[in-house]
Here is the input.
Amino acid sequence: MTNFGRNLLDLYLDAAPWLLLGLIVAGLIKAWLPAERLNRWLGGDKLWSIIKAAFVGAPLPLCSCGVLPAALGLRRAGASRGTTLSFLISTPETGPDSVALSYALLGPFMAIIRPVAAIVSAVFTGLLTLFVRKPASPVFPVKEPETGACCSGNSCSNEPAPAQTGGLSRTWEGIRYALTDILDDLLLWLAVGLVLAALVATLVPPLAMAEWGSGLDAKLLMLLAGIPVYVCATASTPVAAGLLLAGISPGTVLVFLLAGPATNIATIGVIHKEMGRMTTIIYLLGISLSSLGLGVATDWLVHAMDIDIMAELESGAEVLPSWLAQASGLLLLIAAIRPLRRKLIGA
Here is the structure.
């Protein structure tokens, strides 16, 4: 086997059990958390609603386009602009699947920093709206945005899972949903990310870009690259692993992990249409400032705590036995191949 093939297989097996765990948790959340309950929790225009929206949105299994109907539904239910933006940012930036995969591919430090940074970024952006006068904007009916470049599966919807008569049936529907709709949405970009990470590991010497990839210029470049494109939190993780292997600093990588999943052209367009130009400016400004600030803070923290990022990259997979990684990889592969999947779980 070539070095590239070996690196690709190692990355896949390292990621498989954690990705499978994250997918199952995401599916269970989808099955057991009705959208109506979200509206009750997050309605209103108080400061506490902004903070609560960030914490509630963080574990939800919605991509940056799939979160739009849910966020706009909250807006029409009485949520403030700040609450809506907070939910709109924290939800796609992190989730159970991306955190689990981060632990496997990026190490424990980044697995902790990533969700914390997502919540801080969301709350910061939501708070910015408190300093701007409320616009007298018309209310539009909620509808699904046209997001052709975004995910195509049912996880782009905020509709709750079909009601089941029993807890076991509902739990199974959540797991089946995770291994079908959510996995289908991730497959293409996750595969691209794994291939890119394997290429970097094969072709780029470790720490080759360490001097270039730690300054403010590098963080600004990551920000400019991340804002317009669509990349979900989970699929961006292998790319981030490749960047860390090449020597890009953790803070610079964090900028990409925050800005990439939180924004894209479709999301920006829908926010501008539904909530106005000023809200769109606040949205982009909040993500930009918080991403850069958190990136700088992360690099400082790594230096102050003397964290060995290269050792962290290897620590996540060492916890699990090899047979579990192989079994998880096989199960994910079967779930990804639709004819095999239909025979096993009928979906």
